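Reopening this ticket.

The earlier resolution said the output was attached, but the attachment link was broken on my side. Pasting everything inline this time so it's all in one place.
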Amino acid sequence: MSKYLPKIDRITEEVLKELEMACEYFKSFRNSHEGYAVILEELDELWDAIKDKKCSLEDQRKEAIQVAAMAMRFIFDLCK
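Inline output:
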């Protein structure tokens, strides 16, 4: 068993929770361009959090979870 697996499992659980929430509240991506735009928006929010000296690592982590969830949403919605 990998020593990294417990941490990977916790992160994956958070990403899946974020993905499930997004699927419940927002329509599916209509095309690759829309999916890319959403991922880019989330990535920009992560970058803004990184640049903000007042932003905590926990806030940055939340943004990173959203980036990962939207990347999974892209696959879920568009890559059959």
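Reporter confirms the inline version is readable. The chain has a mean pLDDT of 97. Residues 5-78 form one domain.
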